[in-house]
Write a structure and sequence with these properties.
single chain, 402 residues, alpha/beta, 7-stranded mixed β-sheet, 10 helices, globular
Length: 402
């Protein structure tokens, strides 16, 4: 048996034991990335030590660090006038980090709240400045996004913050109206759960931040992309800790102020290299295809499964849905799904229901397996449509006029 055949045999046995992981994060990773990380675990590129044992000041690790940063610059088309930081604390730490670094002499910041995570960001920022919520009368449940003609923007605010994909609520702002934000006001975007899932124009933003653990790596690494002219001492609050201070981080050797999550950055670099083989348009096309399969299964169920998000805002990354029979049926669904190798399809604890996260490494076969299971579960647990409730308006059949 040749080495290649032996390797393929081992890989096949590994795959036979793997489940389809629909977790909202950490995400599933490409097998190619896992295999390379496995090979480097004990002896990284002949150095005689594991990548996890290597000092972050080691010359070999400097190559790992810069490979990841250069990979993002290529993948996203990040211009030279932007700096890339790898930070810790998750995207949530940036809810405080952004105002600490951008407020300057300003007293307020604009926030477009469209779901749980942008609400958390606004609440955190309110500890440091006045928060102007531009959607002045938001709904109790977010199923769409208000038009920009109804925003109430504070023209004196330091920046404008929004979350492009609400992981918990399952909606995405695909066509953000950039012209609605004053040209001189930095636009800040939390892209965590859709980061690297589609092409973007980085130059539209003053600052982008995202946890890597959704579409481009494991947990423990937060990517911050900031325009260099915004990294100014006079903008930074005096209470800002040094590890959150953009100027301090920028001045440090390789922009490493302290010991980073070396393993997380390493695996992120492998993942970015993998994505650069295909380009972001490839992953956008996959996201459209995967999400369509699942939304079609939901919409064709006759109300057995329900997604209430307005179609043009439906997330391709996080598909949230409920069952007409309610919580008891959802618990049975989750138990049976797990037995079928479909893991972590539960909704967030704050909102309940069900959620399937379809990140970059999710194979189409995983979504096909889920939709097949959904059909089987529905057929085995049928009930009459007369007992279904809460159908979204766009799924209700209009009565014909006599």
């Amino acid at each position: 048996m040749c080495i290649r055949d032996r390797y393929m045999g081992i890989l096949k046995r590994i795959m036979e034991k793997r489940v389809f992981n629909f977790s909202a994060g950490p995400c599933c990773l490409p097998m190619e990335v896992l295999k390379e990380a496995h090979d480097d675990m004990f002896n990284y590129k002949g150095t005689g030590m594991s990548i996890m044992e290597m000092s972050h000041r080691n010359k070999e690790y400097a190559k790992v660090w810069n490979n990841a940063r250069d990979g993002f610059r290529k993948l996203l088309g990040i211009p030279a006038e932007y700096q890339i930081f790898f930070m810790q604390g998750g995207a949530s730490l940036q809810f405080s980090g952004v105002p600490m670094n951008l407020l300057g002499e300003k007293k307020s910041a604009n926030f477009l709240v469209t779901g749980v995570w942008s609400d958390k960001a606004a609440t955190e920022a309110a500890n440091l400045c006045k928060v102007n919520r531009v959607w002045t009368e938001p709904p109790k449940q977010y199923y769409n996004i208000i038009g920009e003609d109804k925003w109430k923007i504070d023209p004196e605010a330091a920046y404008f913050h929004y979350c492009s994909n609400e992981t918990i609520n399952g909606l995405t702002y695909y066509d953000f109206p950039y012209s609605a934000v004053p040209a001189t006001m930095p636009l800040v975007c939390d892209m965590s759960s859709e980061f690297c899932s589609r092409p973007i124009d980085v130059t539209k933003y003053g600052l982008i931040f995202a946890g890597a653990q959704k579409n481009c790596g494991p947990a423990g690494n937060t990517v911050v992309i900031v325009r260099k002219d915004l990294i100014k001492k006079e903008k930074i609050m005096k209470i800002t800790p040094s590890i959150m201070n953009f100027e301090e981080v920028n001045k440090a050797s390789e922009q490493m102020l302290n010991t980073p999550g070396t393993w997380s950055v390493y695996v992120t670099g492998l993942y970015v290299n993998y994505m650069n083989k295909f380009g972001l348009k490839h992953f956008e096309d996959l996201a459209i295809h995967r999400s369509k399969l699942l939304y079609d299964a939901i919409d064709s169920s006759g109300g057995y499964y329900i997604n209430k998000v307005e179609p043009k805002f439906r997330s391709r990354q996080n598909v949230v849905f409920q069952m007409a029979k309610g919580e008891a049926s959802e618990k049975k669904f989750l138990a049976d799904a797990e037995k079928a190798g479909l893991i972590d399809v539960s909704g967030h604890r704050m909102v309940g229901g069900l959620r399937a996260s379809l990140y970059n490494a999710m194979p189409v076969e995983g979504v096909e397996a889920l939709t097949k299971f959904m059909k089987k579960f529905m057929d085995e647990n049928k009930q009459t449509l007369s007992t279904f409730t809460s159908l979204p308006g766009f799924l209700k059949k209009k009565k014909k006029k006599k």
